[in-house]
Design goal:
single chain; 122 residues; alpha+beta; YaeB-like fold; 6-stranded mixed sheet; 5 helices; 32% helix
């Protein structure tokens, strides 16, 4: 029997944990509300099979080679005014995305790489 699964790519839905954290942050930053809503909608339909797929769904960047963290650039008053750092975990049928930090572009730029890789605020 021919292996029909050989060229099949498995995709997994994304489950955002701590969605309320993003929604609460957006309420306090009216200039980013529609951008955060767009970001959340894109995550609702994301379908990732590997970490590099994260960067294709939304403007996300893996924090370092081999890291389980990604930073998303979320627009606002000006381009990319907010940043969201998430930890991701690929499972068998699901990708879990944990919100660990949210802030402005300026606040994000003040963080060290070590802090970005270890922060867990929520």
């Amino acid at each position: 029997m021919v292996n029909l699964l050989k060229n099949y790519s498995y995709h997994m839905r994304v489950r955002l944990l701590r969605r309320d954290t993003i929604e609460d942050f957006a309420k306090g930053h009216a200039n980013g509300k529609t951008h955060f809503e767009n970001f959340l909608e894109i995550l609702d339909y994301a379908d990732w099979s590997e970490p590099n797929d994260i960067t294709k769904s939304y403007s996300g960047n893996l924090l370092s080679n081999g890291s389980d963290r990604v930073v998303f650039d979320v627009g606002g008053n000006g381009r990319n005014a907010f940043r969201v750092i998430c930890k991701f975990a690929f499972g068998i049928k699901l990708v879990r995305l944990y919100v660990v930090w949210i802030g402005t572009h300026e606040e994000y730029n003040a963080l060290t790489l070590n802090y970005k890789l270890t922060v867990w605020n929520y």
